[in-house]
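Z., the sequence and structure:
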Amino acid sequence: MTSSSRQLSRSIAMEEGEDVSVIIKTTLGNVEVMLYPWRAPKSVSCFLAHVDGKYYQNASFYRSTGGGEDVYSIVQGGIFPRLLAGVPVEQWADIAPPLSPVEHETTFETGLDNECGVVALARLQPGTAGSEFFINMADNKVLNTGADCSGRDGYGYATFGRVVRGLDVLRAIQRLERQGMPAIGALDGQVLSAPVQILSIDRM
């Protein structure tokens, strides 16, 4: 099958509401994720653009929360540590992601809450999500659209898939030692001392 034929078949599958499977290969094991383009077409297209562009090769899981005073429980991965490596803190704001950000899809639109095993896009302001993603390690109602939580904008985080195999790998990552990060106060105590390498993310 030619490259153009594969692309056409993928587009047809998304239009017909078929799920898309991807595998996240890490140094601690593999995680299989089912994506739902019929629920979250924009978020899935954004994620797959990074997958197909091989941007996640040598990325990492670098952040986790859960326990203590944390109000939600997640494991986060992506390419930011690679982009920021060797760049002075004062220049971090000037680092541009490799692809354009995606329009925000609410959990009202997708009908998929931030519950255990569900995958979502990380972001700053709504409409700024791109390469970074997280997996919910508990039912995190506070991350849903419309959640009433002090200090949050209420838009929630865009959900687009679910882990179908490999939660044990993610739990192992979540148990790893974390450290402070004075440069980004909001991440204090949430950055893994030794990030777990993502070897690749590929369609199955």
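The first helix runs from residue 3 to 15. The chain is about 20% helix and 25% strand.

Let me know what you think.
H.
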